[in-house]
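Reader question, answered in our methods column.
A reader sent in the components of a multi-part assembly and asked whether the whole thing could be modeled at once rather than chain by chain. We filled in our standard form and ran it. Here is what they sent:
COMPLEX SIZE: two components
ENTRIES:
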Amino acid sequence: MIMSFIGKSFGGVATLLILGSSYAFAQDAGVYTEAQATAGRAVYAASCAGCHRPNLVGGGDAPPLVGAGIMSAWGDHPIAELYAAIVNSMPPGAAGSLSDEQYTNVMAFLLQANGAKAGTNPYTKTATFRFGNVATGAGGPGGGEGGGASAAASPYAPKGLTVNGSVKDYVDVTDEMLTHPPDGDWLMYRRIYQGWSYSPLKQINTSNIKQLQLKWAWSMNEGGASEVTPIVHAGVIFLSNTSNTVQALNARTGELIWENRMGPVSKVSYGATRSLGLYGGNVYVATTDAKLHALDARTGKVVWESVIDVPPKGETGGVIIIHGKVLVGMMGCDNYSATNCFISAYDAKTGARDWIFHTTALEGEPGGDTWNGLPNLNRGGGDTWIAGTYDPDLNTTYWGVAQTKPWMRASRKSGDASTLYSTSTLALDPDTGKLKWYFQHMPGESFDLDEAFERVLIDHGGQKTLMTIGKPGILWKLDRVTGKFLSLKETIFQNVFSGVDEKTGVLTYRQDILDQKTGQWLSSCPGPEGGHNWMAVSYNQPTDLMIIPLSQSCVMMQGHDVDMKLGGGGTAASQKFFFTPGTHRNMGKLAAYRTSDMKEIWSWQQRSPFLTAALSSAGGVAFIGDFDRVFKAVDVKTGKILWQTRLGNTVQGYPVTFSLDGKQYIAVASGLGGGSPVRKPSMMLDEVHRPVTGNQLYVFGLPD
Amino acid sequence: LYRSIVEHKRAHSAKWRRRTLGVADENEASVSLTGGIVFANLARASGRLFDDESLSFYKMASIKISALASVDRRERHAASSQTACAGMGGISMLRRSFFMGAAVVLLLTTPVLAAGQAFMAELDPVPFDASNRAKVINAEGTVSAVLDGNTLRISGNFSKLTSPATDASLRLSAAMGVPGDAIGKLSVAHDKEGTISGSVALNDAQVAALKKQSLYIRIDSEKAPDGHLQGWLEPKGK
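And here is the structure of the entire assembly that came back:
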């Protein structure tokens, strides 16, 4: 017995010695070379850092590639699996497009960034060792804050006012015009303060829509993500391009009048600048590097520039201008920051900051006790992806707030806490930034299911309501005077909530979500694509129909442990994708709901999801564009497709309509980049092939 | 044999269907044999034999015969062996015997199956990321099931697997779309395309789960041993 025990022990020790020596050998010999890591750093900077961030901490849909995040996701896996995953999916939209040498060099860089030793043996794609056997997650020369690939030089690009010109007969935009816009103009994001994306123009209608034809097109900046809203006033289209470039185009001819390239050059494949603002004689643009700029609308020259915060924070959701104040939200609040996430307001004339409202309630403030005792530093998230709406009568602006970061409550250690003001509707006084009321749609959310999108203001008789729909695909109706819940409607299949109380608005999470642990895979239908995402609804006022672009996809999500330090956090989750059961793999759904009684009037599904907002008009036509490049016009009342055409790439952004010289036009963009709404169909729709370029503006009209 | 039937079917499909089964509508039926023992299950139309027009029957085998067959609502009682074989003049005796066997079993099983509640599932790829996407993305299949008392009879087909199927199971989940544990093993063709079938006795809780769309089918394969296809059972016609 004793001998047997000794024998077993000896055997065990011998095994340990053998394993230990091979581990030590691997450590001593190194598993890549310095030269590979150096070359990999450059590849990473050019092809990966845009999403995974220069310091590899990840962001948005891009998981962390350094520290606890990558160790919990890949530490136990053979490195060949990580290599295969990267080759098969990266860079986004161009998987496998790098050479073997470039991929292996990136792997060497990742090993270095996670503390693995360099040596004389090069890393090869056939290597089989476990990532966690050689890497610790501790930042090596390539990892850690500021030690990443940020030093890589940006490609050459001109900056500043690159095309000089002048808009003739420009008419300053007044408060009255913002409140009651001219029929032919599109002065702000969703056209009017109430966020309808509805135009009273009716020259283009159900009887002549089949005659719609292309009038002109304009190639926009490539690189980065494009989800543009063309802003139209005084015969000019103001266009936000990637790399924070603003252009003024003659709306009649498509001629470029002026161009200001503010930079920096976009390397991020998400975070498109969705809209601009007009007020007085200025164009206002909030940029991806967290600055707010006022440009002279006539010339494009910079009037003033104000710093909102510092990158990786930025702003892409556009602005809303109320009473001479420019209100702007914030994105990029994934990683732990000393300044947290906030909405802020600036004087339209000077750029001076007027007020600030933190969207993650801070310690000692109202709502600050809803974070399970986490310090302010660890109160991540609370981004505002779309500019708010405004009720002039109530003098109240309404904003949606995104989820807490990290996505999963087990990662962020928030327990069952609600983490205000995540996934909430905020009602703010635009003059002071004071909170009037809030309504939290999903306390303690866990799957990147934002309720961060458009708040649409609709009156039903004497009742002033606010309607919104987010990623869970639940259409909410609130009293916008008090914030009281009125009703809800589920628009797509969901499995996150085991209970949805239509009388109280209370949602009950599935039990395994409440019991979650890091490293555990959990199902979420829908997943981060939504439901409903940034592709905003249109409220067709004459029919009382809200036309809603919807998506159908599910994920399995695995939360990771995170570094609870400055710059740590992140979204911190891995995802696997699957089709929503029972949908015949149709990812796109377009539906119309009558807002008075929340009844679905019509809907249809298709394989590709929609990548534009909806637009509708008094002509009884609604417009929508999809991932597979098809731009459609449908009958508002029936949903019947009346006209369609195919564009150069994914129809992406916010279509608008305007009129000039008595003629109505439709402007819509194609575009690339984007987060979950693009990443999911890119992975799931095997038959859809998209060009690698294609940010473009198209203007359609009836025959002359 | 399979090819000859298919070719014959393509050449004479409409006429053949009418003559063979006395029907006009199309629905796919696949028939197969194992060891000479005929085994049939209703497929897509299982359990709604008397309230819908479609009919399909399956038999387990290494030899598979696929044919287009359908039974019109008015004529489905006439889909007897006599009727089925009456129009088979151009087909060999062997093939004729297959259909006779299938039809006989069909007659035996029809009264029982007709009384059950019908479910169906479309089979989609299991959750995937970049590491396993290529293995599973194009696989597909459909499953029908009939609940008779507490017995769930399951049949279906699958195709476009990248490696031969190895296992199939009925599984219980917390909700549609949530993975769960196996509660019954199903027979599956060890091929990249083929059929699955089987019967599972459910307890009351599992029956309740079925009606809440919390039971699902999973097919595993050599390259995807933890799942290649999955599909949640939903009431037919939902």
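What stands out: Chain A touches chain B at residues 81, 84-90, 95, 493, 495, 498, 510-512, 521, 523, 525, 554-556, 574-582, 584-585, 683-684, 686 (CB under 8 Å). Residues 1-27, 140-155 of chain A have pLDDT under 50 and may be disordered.
Send us your own complexes using the same form.
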